[in-house]
Amino acid sequence: MKEILIIEDSTADAKAAVRALKKAGVKNPVRLIDHGTRAMRYLEAVAAPPTVVFFDVKLPGHSGFELLDYVREDPKFNGTLRIVFSSLDDIRTIKDAYAHGAHSFLVKPVSEGEIVALVKAFAGYWVMKDGAAERSLA
Hints:
The chain is built from five helices and five strands. By secondary structure, the protein is of the alpha/beta class. The chain has a single domain, classed as Rossmann fold (3-Layer(aba) Sandwich). Strands 2-1-3-4-5 form a five-stranded parallel beta sheet, with helices on both faces. Helix 1 crosses helix 5 (112-121) and helix 2 (36-45) runs parallel beside helix 3 (64-73).
């Protein structure tokens, strides 16, 4: 079963996202990385790319947009769902996220309801407890 990667420098926001995913019924393992440069090193070295990556925009080291560009341009991530979640909610940031390759954009703090809706919208990327979405690219 492929992992979900959360790149987020706020421990509270990262843990909230993990809790929301679990409450939504997602069973995939989750990896947390709290620094843009460490995230870049991980993405460059990973043999089995994650099924989903959540990117914060403002990170120490490499920005979320730089990481998005890397993932968008590397063919090994072609099947990876790219989600930006940020406290920046201006139209420019949202447009930039999509221009850099995001598939979805969530404004922090992200509610459990938003995560549930996201899981339903992209059902094929998760392994669900009730077997509803079995694709997960495992």
